[in-house]
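From the pipeline queue, job 12 of 40. The input is one protein chain; the requested action is below.

Action: predict structure.
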Amino acid sequence: MNNTIKKNIDTTLKFVYSDNNSLSVIFHNNDLLMGVAGEFNKNLKELEKMTNSSLYSRGNSIMIKSNPQKK
């Protein structure tokens, strides 16, 4: 990956890990958030199926919640 692109991504995303097996991804760029979530959160629903996790969108963040024992 080009360092310029990687540096730009690093400044537009923030990752917050929680003890309850969840990860919050905070977007500082609304266009990037819209691209990930898709229209009416359609992409998030597909990502939930692919990753076998629950995704919640609120404001400028997406919370990813999963159970490590669940397969």
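Job complete. The mean pLDDT is 83.
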